[in-house]
Design a protein that fits this description.
Helices cover 33% and strands 25% of the residues. With 271 residues, it is α/β, with parallel strands linked by helices. The chain has a six-stranded mixed β-sheet with strand order 1-5-4-3-9-10. The protein is globular and about 50 Å long. 44% of the residues are buried.
Length: 271
């Protein structure tokens, strides 16, 4: 997978990290810019404000993965890997920034804590806030208003959620994604997985009317799966509903997290 780094330049502010270990926070003369992070099973994406966006593969060349199926499976290894990526790509990270990070929907408390520890060790944030990936994807796709059914088909994880004005009402997830298409999983099987998750949501009496309304509007698809025409075509058939591909599906969640980071830095009381 190609490495993509856009307009990333060193900052003149003090108190910067570039993948190094740290124990103290040097004084800064201005508040650092907020950051947004989307640490996926296959890709690290970071929004660095005016400095740009970093998008690099995670774990390439390692003997064992540090993130698998949306979970940090090797905390120390993940910290070392992220520090290496920041150092190798000369990414200056401001110490004490507000950080908004994406997390898989329905993540277990232990998984949330593992991700928190990794990001705290690597980024040393003043505040670390989490947003469900499906919610961030809806915001980033510009589709958060009203009733929405969103499918985030990632490399190793598929998440489906019903949202009402940007709030997650109900969600389901399956540990399968586009990386599995090279093995025993076909595009038809992945589309059937999304359809099964939607059916599970419709079985909840309180959620059923929202799912019906959202299907009439059409399903919004983000993540790597949205870039595969074979999958989106099969989703139309499997769901019996229109399927709308986000304009920038791979970065929709990061875009949403970056908007949340800016909002949280300007209006901390409303976080």
């Amino acid at each position: 997978m190609p490495v993509h780094v856009t307009s990333v330049h060193p900052s003149g502010r003090t108190g910067m990290l570039a993948g190094r270990s740290h124990g103290t926070r040097p004084a800064t003369t201005v508040d650092p810019e907020p950051l947004a992070v989307d640490l996926g099973s296959a890709q690290l994406r970071m929004w660095l404000g005016p400095a740009g966006v970093l998008s690099v593969p995670v774990g390439e060349g390692l003997r064992a993965p540090v993130v698998r199926r949306g979970r940090v499976v090797d905390g120390p290894g993940c910290v070392a890997e992220l520090r290496r990526l920041l150092r190798d790509h000369r990414i200056p990270v401001p110490v004490g920034a507000l950080v908004v990070a994406c997390r898989p929907v329905l993540a277990a408390p232990a998984d949330r804590e593992a991700l928190r520890r990794v990001l705290a060790a690597v980024l040393a944030p003043s505040r670390l806030l989490f947003v469900d990936t499906v919610r961030a994807g809806a915001i980033g796709a510009g589709a958060a208003a009203g009733t929405l059914l969103l499918a985030d088909v990632g490399a190793q994880l598929t998440e489906v959620a019903v949202l009402e004005d940007g709030r997650v009402v109900a969600a389901r997830r399956a540990e399968v994604g586009t990386r599995d298409l090279n093995h025993a999983v076909t595009a038809a099987m992945l589309a059937d997985t999304v359809a099964r998750l939607v059916r599970e949501l419709r079985r909840e009496p309180a959620v059923r009317p929202l799912v019906s309304a959202a299907l009439a509007r059409g399903v919004v698809v983000v993540g790597d799966g949205a870039t595969r025409p074979d999958l989106t075509a099969r989703l139309v058939a499997a769901l019996g509903a229109p399927v709308h591909r986000a304009a920038s599906p791979r970065t929709a969640a990061l875009t949403g997290a970056s908007l949340a980071a800016v909002a949280a830095s300007r209006h901390p009381a409303g976080t």
